[in-house]
Amino acid sequence: MTSYRIKRHRQRRHGGSHFVLIPFIDMMTILVVFLLAHTADVDILPNTKNISIPQSLSDRKPSAAVVVMITKDAVFVDGQLVGSLSDVVANQGPFFAPLKNALMAQNDRTLGGAEHVDIAKREVTIMGDKATPYSVLKKIMLTCSEAEYGKVSFAVVERERAAT
Fold first, then answer.
1. Where are the beta strands (DSSP E) in the chain?
2. 86 pLDDT exceeds 60?
3. In what order do the strands lie in the sheet with 66-70?
4. Same domain, 8 and 85
5. Is the pTM above the cut of 0.85?
6. Which has the higher per-residue pLDDT, 49 or 139?
7. Radius of gyration of the chain (CA)
8. Does 7 lie in the same domain as 75?
9. Quick check: 83 and 68 in contact, CB under 8 A?
10. For residue range 96-120, what is the model confidence (pLDDT) as tens digits?
11. Could you tell me if 28 and 65 lie in one domain?
12. Do residues 101 and 83 lie in contact, with contact meaning Cβ atoms separated by under 8 Å?
């Protein structure tokens, strides 16, 4: 009779499922804290499936700027179509006029009509496919400079660094 009571007592003490739940809650709490800490650093640049961005070792995070996106067949300024890539290649001048007009209009919108903003503070980021010819990139960069943007940056994917 006493062995039956001892067995029942041990089952009540160790047989409950609430003991299995506590480590699971602890693990979920740690996971939530980890995800909150590591998702606070969000990329600012838009992501597209049409572009294969080159890799680089970049220490600087992107800042909020006007984005010129060069896909395999078109050029966009902040998501608005400016022209086709064949138009940029066919253009004989040193810069692409439709892109300059779109950048100047974007500049006026972001500055709110302020004329005396320092050119060095105006930023543009170029997101180009890694197969984009250098002649096209050169023309796009010159156009950004003509549109009075002082900081021209390229969007790159951060390459994994080797463990040192």
1. 55-56, 66-70, 74-77, 80-84, 123-128, 151-154, 157-158
2. yes
3. 80-84, 74-77, 66-70, 123-128, 151-154
4. no
5. no
6. 139
7. 28
8. no
9. no
10. 888 888 888 887 665 555 555 666 6
11. no
12. no
* pLDDT at site 57: 61
What is the domain extent for residue 95?
55-158
CB within 8 Å of 62: residues ≥ 6 apart: 43, 44, 45, 125, 153, 155
> Do residues 78 and 32 share a domain?
no
**What's the structural domain count of the chain?**
2
Q: Are residues 61 and 107 in the same domain?
A: yes
The enclosing domain of 104 has a CATH number of: 3.30.420
Q: 3 in helix, strand or coil? A: helix
Q: Which neighbouring-strand residues pair with 80?
A: 77
Asked if residue 47 belongs to a domain, the reply is no
Burial profile 50-89: b = 16 or more Cβ within 10 angstroms, e = fewer: ebebeeeeeeeebeebbbbbbbeebbbbbeeebbebeebe
Selected residue with higher pLDDT from 130 and 53: 130
